[in-house]
Specification:
- Keywords: Cell membrane, Electron transport, Heme, Iron, Membrane, Metal-binding, Transmembrane, Transmembrane helix, Transport.
- With about 190 residues, the chain is mainly alpha-helical.
- It has 5 helices and 2 strands, in the order ααααββα.
- Strand 1 and strand 2 (about 125) form a beta hairpin.
- Helix 3 packs across helix 4 and helix 4 packs antiparallel against helix 5 (about 135-170).
- The radius of gyration is 20 Å and the shape is elongated.
- Bound molecules: protoporphyrin IX containing FE (HEM) (2 copies).
Length: about 190
């Protein structure tokens, strides 16, 4: 591929930072959900390890989401829409909702742990609660919202992924290819 073709193809995709941040977020969300839904199955030492992993990965996810929103606003590449106005509206509504639900899930996670008077463990390093514990009624609400919001995020992300696959393989407009690393799925551009 000549340099000109490589550059043209490059501009059809999101920049490397956006792609990396998108797939790291997706992976962490799946890990978080799987840990939270499965940690009641094994005995205590493994259960404890899974909770600590959830808390550590939760802190990494916090940093990634905040960085990602900053990157999106400042340096992330903007691409012309490949979608019809209605599809574009639906995609933007879904993506903004996912950002908001992820931020809410993160806030609820810290509120649950710290509000119950427990420290958050980052790779075994204990970060104590910066505020006084909440009442048990408030903690019940936080637990319930964190648990149901997790299902909502996973449900919406599944719909979002299905839409991306439908666009890529049925409508064939290369929407998914734009969010993949260079060299995957996009047709070669003529010089
Ligand atoms: C998208 C990200 C996240 C998802 C999908 C998620 C999902 C879950 C799920 C499914 C549970 C189990 C709920 C239940 O037992 O009914 C849970 C529990 C919990 N999560 Fe998250 N979570 C996320 C992020 C976070 C973050 C960022 C934190 C805080 C750093 C956090 C802290 C907690 C705590 C403290 C529990 C309860 C642990 C225990 O039972 O001792 N979560 N989460
Ligand atoms: C938990 C999983 C996921 C979350 C939270 C998530 C979230 C998001 C968000 C917030 C955006 C907007 C990016 C921006 O403009 O800032 C986005 C874009 C995108 N996502 Fe996901 N995503 C997930 C999984 C997936 C999967 C599994 C696929 C594909 C199978 C996918 C395909 C795409 C594509 C193609 C775009 C770009 C759409 C466009 O150009 O308008 N995502 N995603």
């Amino acid at each position: 591929m000549t340099e000109a073709v490589a550059n043209a193809t490059d501009k059809l995709r999101y920049d490397r930072g956006t792609v990396l941040l998108h797939w790291t977020t997706a992976l962490l969300v799946v890990i978080q959900f799987a840990l939270g839904e499965m940690w009641d199955w094994p005995a205590k030492p493994v259960h404890h390890l899974m909770v600590v992993t959830h808390l550590t990965a939760g802190m990494v996810l916090t940093a990634i989401i905040l960085f990602r929103i900053g990157w999106r606003i400042t340096r992330g590449r903007r691409l012309a829409s490949l979608l019809s106005p209605v599809d574009r509206f639906c995609a933007l509504a879904m993506e903004s909702t996912l950002y908001m639900l992820l931020l809410a899930e993160i806030g609820l996670g810290y509120a649950w742990r710290w509000g119950a008077g427990q420290a958050i463990s980052f790779l075994g390093l204990l970060l104590p609660s910066p505020f006084t514990p909440f009442s048990s009624g408030t903690i019940w609400w936080i637990e319930t919202l964190h648990s149901w919001n997790a299902w909502l995020i996973v449900g919406l992300a599944t719909g979002h992924a299905a839409a991306a696959l439908f666009h890529q393989f049925v409508i064939r407009d290369h929407v998914l290819a734009r969010m993949l690393p260079a060299g995957t799925l996009l047709p070669r551009t003529k010089p």
